[in-house]
Amino acid sequence: MRLADFKEIFFWEWLHRLLARTIVGFVYAVPLFWFAARRELPKKFGPAFFAILGLFAAQGVLGWYMVASGLVDRPSVSHYFLAAHLLLAQAIYASMLWLGLSLRRGEPRAGDRALFIQAAAALALVVTTMCWGAFTAGLRGGLIYNDSFPLMGGALVPPEAHQSVLSNPAGAQFLHRWLAMASVAMVCGLWIHAYARRKLFPVMNAVGLMVFAQAGLGIATLFSQVWLPLAAMHQAGAVILMTLLIMSLHRLAARP
User: Fold this and answer.
1) DSSP character for 71?
2) Which residues are paired to 155 by β-bridges?
3) What is the count of structural domains for the chain?
4) C-alpha closest to that of 193 among 90, 115, 113
5) Most buried among 4, 115, 140, 243, by the most CB within 10 A?
6) Residue 46 is part of which domain span?
7) In terms of domains, do 70 and 117 share one?
8) 150 preceded by a cis bond (ω within 30 of 0)
9) Confidence of residue 107 (pLDDT cuts 50, 70, 90)
10) Which of 81, 107, 133 is the last residue of a domain?
11) 197 and 210 belong to one structural domain
12) With contact defined as beta carbons under 8 Å apart, do 136 and 172 qualify?
């Protein structure tokens, strides 16, 4: 590694830690304790606010273990810790989003058990796809098989795919691709079902459009050999899609 490469890595690591400490400390913890001391937290949701603070603390510990996994025997972090760090971040975000939606007054509700179960299954599949996206990124799997989609090396199943979808770069990319295509199909099914039942038109239209945009960003990221701006947009697209699905779930969770 050249000194310039180390400086670039150091800068992003420093900025990431600074942003994390700012969010946890000044943006979340200080206002939380201020409102708690003034007894202005809603009693029903007070424990949830502090539970999220606990998740933040766990995220900091997990982040350190992730960094430590690349300090001794290898020059890169463990892709397992990388995926766990990402998923815990998404869990924190999802918890805050659900809590924020629960605090809103006058939010339209469209209680529908069948749609709720279908939306929950779609969200679970999207999150699983995100997990294998982290595996693919951590193994640098996006730097191989960049010339075609859905084929990999001229075949639907690459020769290395049978080795391991957990630790082999080609296997991880292969499963990420097919999980993504399954996510598109499942979300489209949810979109059609919601349209047939005349429920959640605005947010479901956004979900349907976003899943195609996200798939397009993933393919573009692959063909670009993981050009950083496209990769960042692909990650952001996953968060937006997850956000829209959580909003749908929240509206479907209770009777109107």
Assistant:
1) S
2) 152
3) 2
4) 115
5) 115
6) 1-107
7) no
8) yes
9) low
10) 107
11) yes
12) yes
Q: Strand, helix or coil at 14? A: helix
Q: Which run of H or of E encompasses 41?
A: none
| Alpha carbons 116 and 251: distance in angstroms, whole number | 9
Q: What is the pLDDT of residues 17-39, one digit of tens each?
A: 999 999 999 999 999 999 999 99
Structure tokens belonging to residue 131: 């997990």
Beta strands in the chain (DSSP E): none
pTM for this one? 0.90
> Do 115 and 199 meet the contact criterion of CB atoms below 8 Å apart?
yes
Tokens 């709720």 locate to: 116
Same domain flag for 176 and 248: yes
The residue from 107, 132, 167 where one domain ends is: 107
Token pair 């960042």: residue: 232
Contacts of 17 (CB under 8 A, 6+ apart): none
Fill in the amino acid letter for 16.
H
Burial class for 6, CB neighbours closer than 10 Å (0-12, 13-18, 19+): exposed
Q: What count of other Cβ atoms lies within 10 Å of the Cβ of residue 245? A: 26
Burial label, 173 (beta-carbon count in 10 A; 0-12, 13-18, 19+): buried
